[in-house]
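Table S2 (continued). Query chain:
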Amino acid sequence: MAGIAVFLPFFCSQARAAREGGGSVALSLTSAAFGANGSIPAKHTCEGADASPALAWSAVPAGAKSLVLIVDDPDAPDPKAPQTTWVHWVLYNIPPTTTSLSEGVTAADLPPGTREGLNDWRRKGYGGPCPPIGRHRYFHKLYALDIALADLGAATKAQVEAAMKGHVLAQAELVGTYEKKKP
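Corresponding output:
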């Protein structure tokens, strides 16, 4: 597996980490498809099969009740003049005993209890990189929560983030990049 992610204290405090396990937790997220800040292979984009990359993680905190995965692109539409963060994938209530998602995972293949939110194409599931111009960064963010979220239905990233606020024990991040091939 390539890539190493770092702990980022998103929605959590050192006090919460101390209550849950005596200090910060080094949750990590990797992919066999690309390394940290590496190029995402075309098969995981709109120029290929648009299949999600295999992802794996470790060191989920002992107090975790669920996991959330959000993949987004803060460079849309142009990395030289970004205007929005484009959401590619939202999964929530992933069981904390889960340690990976296989390449090209479908709704039927998701771990039991996992819920899919909406991406910015207004559909469930993975939508791979498809930047209109330039090389974009794609942030794969995994959150360990101290609760399982209520069934939010086909929630947006903003709705999932609002529901998990104050419940994040740890976060890991893996960034990949992609630029469309020149015609």
